[in-house]
């Protein structure tokens, strides 16, 4: 759809005023906010044409107009001006989101909390699963002559460890050889791949022919947890409830139930955020009926160049899109810095 400069200016002024006030916008308000040197009659004519194009609508006969989902989409794609995140917010994110956690889950929880606090929207993060998390390091060590500690560290910083009883003591030198061999063979493979591998796929007798290697590989596989369902962290549901669109609890209930369950929004996060740039899902574009009064801004986050999860914010369609995109972008970059640092240790 192509719009002339005047229609674009009127649509942008209407959307930006409506986002601030949540009240239908009159032609008089548009003239005040756009700075255009045109008459109210001209604005009304242009609004009537924008309504015919499906970009705005009139909720009540005597009221002003509000944007439709199509209007928001045109605004996001063609009219919206990029905005930088406020310095106070960037400072807070850098100060509070630091690689001080033993496992990735800790920093993801903090990232989700911060994103919600900075944007005043509900934030969601899709947590890495075994299918996307790669093996970084294996360590086998003796606790005592008959007890063995196996520790696994993934590329996302997850740590798994278990103790195993062994019948015959294994020397430190042999364990180090086996550890080095398994690291060389398995590093970079996803945890789910390692769990399904057969011993023959990692056994090369010319490289290492230790009779304990097969047992070590089997207990390593037992240490890897069974593949879990994708988990979603949700923070700031209260911000949805503060929006005037959801003052009616019947309207709010469906959204809150979906967010409370968490896993219900996994398909949206998994399927619609494959692009490297931020994805904006507006109103009726949501597959979930309960979410069609909401918009979502999100993007993937990466570790060592691999997409391992998704992060974003959910709010009403009357969302500050440019600010939301800026916050998601900045926090994602900081999260990737922290997780990459953790993975390099």
Describe the largest sheet.
Answer: 5 strands, antiparallel
**What best-fitting shape do the alpha-carbon axes yield?**
elongated
CATH C-level class of the largest domain is: Alpha Beta
The helix fraction, in percent, is 40-55%
Q: What do we call the CATH homologous superfamily of the largest domain? A: GAF domain
| CATH fold node name of the largest domain | Beta-Lactamase
Q: Which stretches are poorly predicted, pLDDT < 50 over at least 5 residues?
A: none
Using DSSP, what is the number of strands? 10
As a percent range, the share of strand residues is 15-25%
N-to-C series of helices and strands: HHHEEHHHEEEEHHHHEHHHEEEH
Question: Cα-atom Rg, whole angstroms?
Answer: 26 Å
Average per-residue pLDDT, rounded, comes to 88
General description of the model:
The structure is a single chain. The protein is of the alpha+beta class. The protein folds into three domains: 5-79, Arc Repressor Mutant, subunit A, CATH 1.10.10; 87-129 and 230-344, Beta-Lactamase; 135-223, Enolase-like, domain 1, CATH 3.30.390.60. The protein is built from 14 helices and ten strands. It has helices at residues 5-21, 27-34, 40-52, 69-79, 87-96, 104-119, 172-186, 191-196, 199-202, 213-223, 237-241, 249-261, 266-271, 321-344; strands spanning 56-57, 66-67, 122-126, 135-144, 147-154, 159-165, 232-235, 279-282, 294-303, 306-316. The strands form three sheets. The chain has a five-stranded antiparallel sheet. A three-stranded antiparallel sheet has the order 4-5-6. Strand 5 (147-154) and strand 6 form a beta hairpin. The longest helix is centred in the C-terminal third of the chain and has 24 residues, at 321-344. The radius of gyration is 26 Å and the shape is elongated. The relative contact order is 0.14.
């Amino acid at each position: 759809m192509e719009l002339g400069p005047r229609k674009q200016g009127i649509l942008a002024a209407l959307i930006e005023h409506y986002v601030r006030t949540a009240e239908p916008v009159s032609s008089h308000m548009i003239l005040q906010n756009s700075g255009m040197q045109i008459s109210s009659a001209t604005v009304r004519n242009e609004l009537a044409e924008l309504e015919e194009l499906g970009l705005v609508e009139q909720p009540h006969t005597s009221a002003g107009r509000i944007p439709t989902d199509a209007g928001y989409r045109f605004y996001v794609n063609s009219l919206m001006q990029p905005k930088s995140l406020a310095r106070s917010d960037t400072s807070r994110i850098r100060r509070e989101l630091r690689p001080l956690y033993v496992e990735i889950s800790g920093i993801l929880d903090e990232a989700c909390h911060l994103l919600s606090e900075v944007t005043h929207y509900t934030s969601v993060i899709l947590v890495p699963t075994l299918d996307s998390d790669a093996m970084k390091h294996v360590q086998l060590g003796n606790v005592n002559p008959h007890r063995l500690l196996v520790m696994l560290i993934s590329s996302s910083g997850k740590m798994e460890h278990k103790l195993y009883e062994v019948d015959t003591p294994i020397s430190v030198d042999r364990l180090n050889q086996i550890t080095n061999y398994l690291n060389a063979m398995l590093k970079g493979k996803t945890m789910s791949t390692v769990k399904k591998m057969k011993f023959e796929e990692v056994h090369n007798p010319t490289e290492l022919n230790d009779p304990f290697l097969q047992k070590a590989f089997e207990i390593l596989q037992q240490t890897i947890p069974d593949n879990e369902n994708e988990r979603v962290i949700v923070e700031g549901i209260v911000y949805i409830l503060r929006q005037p669109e959801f003052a009616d609890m019947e309207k709010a209930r469906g959204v809150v139930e979906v967010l409370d369950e968490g896993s219900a929004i996994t398909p949206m996060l998994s399927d619609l955020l494959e692009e490297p740039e931020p994805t904006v899902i507006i109103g009726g574009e949501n597959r979930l009926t309960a979410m069609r009064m909401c918009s979502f801004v999100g993007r993937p986050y990466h570790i060592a160049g691999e997409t391992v999860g998704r992060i974003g914010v959910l709010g009403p369609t009357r969302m500050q899109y440019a600010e939301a995109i800026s916050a998601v972008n900045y926090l994602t970059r900081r999260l990737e810095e922290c997780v990459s640092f953790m993975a390099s240790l």
